[in-house]
Amino acid sequence: MADAVVTQLANKLAEECLAVQAETGEDRLFMEVGEVLGASSQTLEEAFLTAVRTRMANDKARAFLARKLRDHRGKGGA
Question: 3 to each of 9, 13, 34, 35, 73, how far by Cα in Å?
Fold first, then answer.
């Protein structure tokens, strides 16, 4: 049960942090938030950083696929 709460909190915080990062342009804000978390809860810090990195990796992969498809279609493909 405690793991589920930590995961839920980390996911919500990650979404909020990434939204603030996007608006402010501070691309390493999540590291600062991680440091704040680490001062009081290493467990939440680790879950948060995992949640942020997972989302960032997902966004990069989706952007990569979108570029590949755009390039393919630009060459007369389907």
Answer: 10, 15, 18, 20, 44
